[in-house]
Design goal:
Elements: H1 15-20, H2 38-66, H3 80-85, H4 89-120, H5 126-134, H6 141-151, H7 160-172, E1 182-183, E2 189-191, E3 197-199, E4 208-214, E5 239-245, E6 269-274, E7 277-283, E8 289-292, E9 301-304, H8 324-350, H9 353-361, H10 366-394, H11 398-403, H12 415-423, H13 430-459
Parallel strand pairs: 4-5
Antiparallel strand pairs: 1-4, 2-3, 3-9, 5-8, 6-7, 6-9
Helix pairs in contact: 2-13, 4-8, 4-10, 5-8, 8-10, 9-10, 10-13, 12-13
Length: 460
């Protein structure tokens, strides 16, 4: 009732009061909190927290504690392990190599990923291209190390890298036909001062010389090799002779004499030398005979040129102490280029096409568009890729352990491998190994913090 009627009507219940009375939309007590209570969230998070505590927090704390004790863990040594770590030459080598890895590997992989990502936008069958580039990510580092250990083999018949290099080299400059050939003991040949072999006695025009060689596999002779024959006697300004393989399959034959089963050595470069100068040059025929013309009068030395016996080019020593770190970085590039390409390609897809088209309309070339528009707009993505790769590079272990032979592992050493070698790889000093682990963690944490801050800024 109103005042005029003398009574007041009952108040209508507020919606918030009804909710607080028990409809479940707010917490009891009228606090206005939605959702389940905090203790229920902790119940669901507990398994993950226990897992992180057991497999992350506890190992970190125990490693920091263990680094303060000696190798056996019975004597407290304080910071001695850290002082000893920084005075050990192997640690300095590992630290130097880690610096090389951090400076070179993330930059190279990021640039390669950027190039591949741009290419995938401009070529047909881009999906197949991405699959091929990304496929190494599906292979473990151990398997990748085994693959590249074979790729970098010194023998061109086994190592792919040297097989390609030697094939190109042989195409440009043919290899020597008889790298293992040498005179039979007692033959009228001796090593020449500039390489190759020369006759022990001088000869005059019109004379014929016979030069037997051994050390050549019969099945490795050039095609067209014929049974050795005695060269005809030359004229007054000519020198003739025969170079042959003085070896009979199955044994037998006479040393220093041309037996019917013995073959001539074709394609050998023969020189007539007088007073240290080459006067005439000829090449042996299929039966091993040669003819040196227009030599003039006088005494001559017959020389088999050094080019006949030079060792074939065997490629690059990838697994040697000089190139081992760049070689392993090449394997790392093969594995991680697909990862960088996928992330950068996602960033490229998010770039507004209007900005690119506006730059082209203003007269910019494709290179200018790429350098002044695409790359600046991609800089956040490139930075994320670079920092992520840097974190993984600091922890590199598998590739170095598998690719580097035992003789050069000290030259390819990195901090993670040094930690393993000191702790379990023969050193059995887990105090020093724990100190190295803590030091490696200190190096990784700043990059991780930077990455987390970047993600938070982008989410805001």
């Amino acid at each position: 009732m109103t005042e005029t009627g003398g009574t007041t009507p009952p108040a209508t219940p507020d919606a918030s009061e009804g909710a607080a009375a028990g409809d479940g939309t707010t917490a009891p007590g009228g606090t206005g909190r939605l959702g389940p209570p905090s203790w229920l969230a902790l119940v669901f998070l507990l398994p993950a927290l226990l897992f992180l505590g057991a497999y992350l927090v506890y190992p970190i704390l125990f490693s920091a504690y263990r680094s303060l004790w000696d190798a056996s863990g019975t004597e407290f040594v304080g910071l001695d392990n850290y002082l000893k770590m920084f005075t050990t030459p192997s640690t300095f080598v590992a630290l130097r190599n880690n610096v090389i890895w951090v400076v070179v590997a993330p930059i190279v992989v990021t640039i390669a990923g950027l190039i591949f990502a741009v290419l995938t936008e401009r070529i047909r069958w881009s999906t197949a291209f991405k699959i091929v580039i990304f496929m190494p990510m599906a292979i473990s580092f151990l398997a990748s190390g085994v693959i590249f250990r074979l790729v970098y083999e010194q023998d061109p018949e086994r190592g792919l890298a040297n097989a390609v290099i030697t094939t190109v080299q042989d195409t440009v400059s043919a290899a020597a036909a008889y790298p293992d050939a040498n005179p039979r003991p007692g033959a009228p040949l001796a090593e020449a001062s500039g390489g190759g072999y020369e006759s022990t006695e001088e000869v005059s025009p019109g004379e014929t010389v016979f030069l037997p060689l051994v050390g050549v596999q019969a099945d490795e002779l050039p095609e067209g090799a014929e049974p050795a024959a005695e060269a005809a006697v030359g004229g007054q300004d000519e020198l003739t002779g025969t170079v042959w393989l003085d070896f009979t399959r199955g044994g037998g034959g006479e040393e220093g004499a041309m037996d019917p089963e013995e073959l001539g050595l074709p394609g050998l470069e023969v020189q007539a030398v007088r007073d240290g100068e080459v006067v005439a040059t000829a090449f042996t025929e299929n039966d091993g005979t040669f003819l040196l013309e227009d030599v003039g009068g006088g005494q001559y030395t017959i020389r088999l040129a050094a080019d006949n016996f030079t060792e074939p080019y065997r490629g690059v020593t990838w697994l040697g102490p000089t190139l081992i770190t760049p070689a392993i970085i090449g394997a790392y590039l093969w594995v991680w280029a697909g990862f960088a390409m996928v992330l950068i390609a996602a960033g490229l897809a998010a770039i507004p096409r209007e900005a690119l088209e506006a730059a082209r309309v203003d007269g910019a070339t494709e290179w200018q568009v790429f350098r002044r528009v695409t790359v600046p707009l991609l800089s956040p993505v490139l930075l994320v890729v670079f920092v992520t790769l840097m974190i993984y590079v600091l922890k590199i272990f598998d590739l170095v352990l598998v690719i580097a032979p035992g003789s050069v592992q000290a030259d390819a050493n990195v901090l993670a491998l040094q930690m393993w070698r000191v702790s379990f790889g023969g050193g059995n000093d887990q105090g020093m190994g724990s100190a190295l682990a803590v030091f490696l963690l200190v190096l990784v944490v700043p990059a991780m913090i930077f990455q987390i801050r970047r993600f938070r800024q982008e989410s805001q």
